[in-house]
Design brief:
The complex is a heterodimer of chains A (243) and B (377). Chain A is of the alpha/beta class and 243 residues long. Chain A contains eight helices and eleven strands. Chain B is globular.
Chain lengths: 243, 377
């Protein structure tokens, strides 16, 4: 594995005073694609939100590119190079697709050294070709798949080194899922590290190099995705059984 | 922004240009109109000043979705800023007094804004109210501000000078009081135009879009790198500066500043109401709301004992019948009229709907009376 770009150690996150993750350890190397797989409520989103500084942490460390993130204000984290697509769409309604892409550049582009705003935006449209003819559409009028693409595109607009995707394939039609998978693979091909959460393990081997399994706020296994999805114990766990 | 867009898109550019020209024409003609009609020039002027403060409040309300219950604090700070300069430092230049008003309001807005920017919803509203009340109590108790008697904005008996333009009109034969009021009025209109243009530019800038994003969801705004508290602080300060300008001009108009009309929290509620009345989703709606509400209150004072109840009645009417405010409802109203012009059959439907609903209400009322009188229906 390459040098870790993101290194999460012994992370304990809290929501309303209750611990929701217990000593999470995970790493993502430069240019690597990693999945965090678990059932709904297993702690995937809490882990991601902790990395983004949106959920308070009670202990542990999050280092990104050698820098400790736990003391940073949440709005500084995207400026350090982490893009985030939250669960659901979470887009800015009343604004167009293009405005959703431009907004992060307007407010944080300088910190990422972005000189040519238009070039970055066009680069995102080049990736998500089917958004091209929807660029002036207000985002509340998009389909589910287009909405997810816009959310990922917005996260890419600050040219991140690491892209965190929270259930990007959830709730989409099979044909749209296949499209999105190919887009994610293309992002990985652009040498952007990807950390993706999925509750459906079957999608994972096509996208990532490595995977972690999370259950009740703890990492219970990690390794090669092809091996892990075949593991009967993991399959049982994903279906709601197991320990 | 979504609301801004709704109102902007529903009106064609040509209509908007006509409305702007018409509005400016009316504003410029107010002194002349007041001479030949029963319109009160002073009341309209006062309404415009409160409307200007409401434009500032609306910057927060419309874009960051924050409700301030203490906005008159900046209006009052501006007014007292000018009054202190005139009373204690014998400053007679109207423009310097206005600059003092803006500086005072900016300083207070910076401090209050810093302390409230991290709060949301009812906490934000209550904090602004609390700061407003603290300021009011401080001024009322303070001998420096001459307690409830307030301070004069005159140096001796003289009115502040307005770049000598008022003297120019006096030498042309105009009464000195009239000359002063005319020059001050046109200064107000000029400032109002600049403020509206600046606000329009601001809300359509990346900063304005970021405020919209913050208004929609602060967490979402943070994870794309928007420094939420800093932007809210800046918006709050700009909003306070508008209040300060309005308060400074108000001091120049009234020539005496007392705490109750410029610092009491009830007036904050009125400024908030002006924005709602004119249309929160519009840029100039708060100005229209300001003129209408001040006019109604000033007029009602002569006819009704409980004239403050009028604010409540008008507010109820707006909430039930014009939820988008007066200007905010114009596009929808225009579209409805246009539909009826194209299809006169719709008017018959409207009449039928009204008749049916009146019949239903009467029937319900009769049933209620029967039950009350006879115990059964």
């Amino acid at each position: 594995m390459s040098d870790p770009l993101l290194e999460v150690s012994n992370l304990t996150a809290t929501v309303a005073g209750f611990e929701v993750t217990h000593g999470i350890d995970l790493e993502v190397g430069e240019g690597e694609a990693v999945a965090l797989v678990g059932r709904n409520g297993a702690g995937k989103t809490s882990t991601f939100r902790s990395i983004m500084g949106l959920t308070p942490i009670a202990g542990g460390s999050i280092r990104f590119d050698g820098e400790e993130l736990t003391d940073l204000r949440s709005e500084l984290i995207p400026k350090r190079g982490i893009g985030y697509q939250p669960e659901g769409r979470d887009l800015f309604t009343g604004m167009t697709v293009e405005e959703n892409f431009r907004l992060p550049i307007w407010t944080a582009g300088d910190a990422r050294g972005i000189d040519d705003e238009d070039a970055v935006v066009e680069d995102v449209f080049d990736l998500f070709t089917e958004l091209e003819n929807r660029r002036d559409a207000e985002v509340q009028n998009l389909s589910g798949g287009q909405g997810k693409m816009t959310a990922i595109g917005r996260a890419l607009a600050l040219q991140p080194d690491l892209l965190i995707l929270d259930e990007p394939l959830e709730g989409l039609a099979p044909v749209v899922v296949e499209n999105l998978k190919s887009y994610i693979r293309e992002i990985i091909d652009r040498d952007i590290s990807v950390l993706v959460a999925e509750s459906n393990a079957s999608h994972v081997p096509e996208i990532v190099d490595r995977m972690y399994v999370i259950e009740r706020g703890e990492i219970v296994d990690s390794g090669d995705p092809d091996d892990l999805v075949q593991d009967e114990e993991i399959q049982l766990l994903m279906q709601g059984g197991g320990t | 922004m979504s609301r801004a867009r709704l109102s902007a898109e529903n009106l064609p550019t040509s209509v908007r240009v006509v409305l702007v020209v018409l509005g400016l024409g009316v504003l410029l003609a107010v002194p002349d109109l007041a001479r030949v009609t029963p319109l009160s020039f002073a009341t309209i002027h006062k309404g415009l000043l409160f409307g200007l403060a409401a434009v500032g409040l609306n910057l927060l309300l419309r874009h960051t979705e924050l409700v301030s219950f203490g906005h008159v604090a900046f209006f009052g700070t501006g007014a007292y800023g000018a009054a202190v300069l005139a009373t204690y430092y014998e400053v007679s230049s109207g423009l310097v007094l206005l600059a003092g008003a803006v500086l005072a309001a900016t300083a207070v807005a910076l401090v209050v804004g810093y302390l409230v920017a991290g709060h949301l919803d009812i906490y934000f509203a209550l904090l602004t109210l609390a700061f407003n009340q603290v300021l009011f109590a401080f001024v009322v108790q303070s001998s420096f501000f001459n307690s409830t008697d307030g301070l004069s904005v005159r140096v001796g008996v003289d009115r502040p000078s307005l770049l000598g333009l008022d003297q120019l009109l006096v030498s042309a034969g105009l009464d000195p009081v009239q000359a002063y009021n005319y020059v001050l009025y046109y200064l107000t209109v000029a400032i109002l135009v600049v403020v509206v243009l600046v606000t329009w530019k601001l809300v359509n800038s990346p900063f304005g879009r970021a405020l919209d994003a913050i208004g929609q969801d602060r967490t979402r705004a943070r994870f794309i790198g928007i420094p939420v508290e800093r932007y809210v602080w800046i918006a709050f300060t700009i909003s306070g500066i508008y209040g300060g300008i309005a308060g400074g001009l108000f001091a120049l108009l009234q020539l005496h500043v007392r705490p109750e009309p410029v610092l009491f929290a009830f007036v904050s509620g009125e400024i908030l109401f002006m924005a709602i009345l004119g249309g929160v989703g519009t840029l100039v709606g708060p100005i229209v709301g300001g003129v209408i509400l001040v006019y109604l209150l000033d007029l009602a004072r002569f006819y009704v004992t409980y004239y403050h109840a009028l604010t409540g009645i008008v507010l109820l009417a707006v909430v039930y019948f014009l939820p988008e405010g007066i200007l905010g409802s114009l596009p929808a109203l225009g579209a409805a009229i246009e539909r009826r012009r194209r299809d006169p059959g719709l008017v018959r439907n409207d009449v039928e709907t009204v008749v049916t609903s009146v019949r239903r209400s009467v029937r319900r009322a009769v049933t209620t009376v029967r039950i009350l009188v006879f115990g059964v229906n």
